[in-house]
Design brief:
single chain, 323 residues, mainly alpha, elongated
């Protein structure tokens, strides 16, 4: 404890000494570039002493210096460095289960937000989107999926000109909604993703209803997950949306919609298993559903298998305990 106190005093003394060089004096212009360099050197020393939060404060001071010098790339870079250091300190506290007020996380989020703003002002949406995703991933790792989804959504908005990246970010939004048990919200996002994949994923010479490459994989994911979400939510005929009713109609035994784009992106085996799953849910045949679960399991992602498990739980507990 005594050693930590001495380190705190030593850091504050050095920090104040560098900061004093930035004060305006009569007939003397402060040397901002030199101060920025000294803050950087102090940051490295603190990092070697395993004090990432203090190093973060030094990087933040560097960012202010770069802003004074009108060096936007340098400002954004040091803001991100500060954010990562604050985040490192927060993750250490989280791992050690130290009580606190999440001050390091708040500082990290503020630094990320300012860096994102700088990149947007410099017309660099791709860089801004990357930082949104980085912060979203960090928040999700800290069990804050409800906060993470807003940054994933912001990344998707910034990536609209690059549809595959946009779809990837929207998929993260949907996963966060499932994680926070907002199944209706997840269904809305997957529907939006399906429309976007069909609209932006068509080949130049082929029909627009047949997405190619990665777009087809994304559409298959959307289709399977939407079906499972609909089986979980079980909307009444009066409340179901037309696009969702159309999705379920594809899996009716008498349906003639096997040539639609979403179905074309599924293998025949998966389509037939999904068709059987829909019919089992509609007839509330739990034993058939459990049997189908074994066959579907290798074809589904971990997230989809979790949803299928919830569907079976809901069938066994119609009061809503499954959801």
């Amino acid at each position: 404890a005594v050693q930590n106190k001495m380190e705190d005093v030593d850091f504050l003394t050095k920090y104040r000494a560098v900061s004093s060089k930035l004060k305006k004096r009569f007939l003397r212009k402060p040397n901002v570039a030199e101060a920025s360099e000294q803050f950087g050197s102090l940051s490295k020393d603190l990092l070697e002493q395993d004090n990432p939060h203090y190093a973060g404060f030094c990087c933040l001071a560097m960012a202010r210096c770069e802003q004074t010098l009108s060096n936007s790339p340098g400002e954004a870079h040091t803001l991100v460095e500060a954010a990562r250091l604050f985040l490192e300190a927060e993750c250490t506290n989280h791992t050690l289960k130290c009580p606190g007020f999440e001050e390091h996380l708040i500082a990290a989020m503020n630094c990320y937000n300012f860096a994102i703003k700088v990149h947007i002002e410099q017309t660099q949406p791709a860089m801004a989107a990357c930082l949104c995703l980085e912060l979203g991933n960090a928040l999700r790792s800290l069990n804050k999926a409800d906060q993470a989804m807003s940054y994933y959504q912001r990344a998707a908005d910034l990536q609209y000109q690059t549809p595959l990246d946009c779809l990837e970010s929207l998929g993260l939004v949907a996963s966060c909604k499932i994680q926070t048990r907002d199944y209706d919200g997840a269904l809305t996002i997957f529907t939006e993703m399906a429309y976007l994949a069909q609209e932006r994923g068509g080949s130049a010479g082929g029909p627009p209803s047949r997405p190619i490459g990665a777009f087809c994989d994304i559409l298959a994911r959307c289709e399977v997950t939407r079906v499972l979400l609909l089986m979980l939510l079980q909307p009444t005929p009066q409340r179901i949306r037309p696009e969702h009713a159309q999705t379920l109609e594809r899996y009716a035994w008498e349906s003639h919609s096997e040539d639609t784009a979403p179905v074309n992106c599924l293998s025949e085996e998966v389509f037939l298993l999904l068709q059987s799953t829909v019919m089992a849910c509609q007839s509330r045949d739990v034993s058939a559903l459990k049997s189908l679960q074994k066959d579907l399991w290798p074809h589904l992602t971990a997230e989809q298998n979790h949803l299928l498990h919830l569907v079976i739980q809901e069938m066994e507990h119609p009061s809503g305990e499954g959801i």
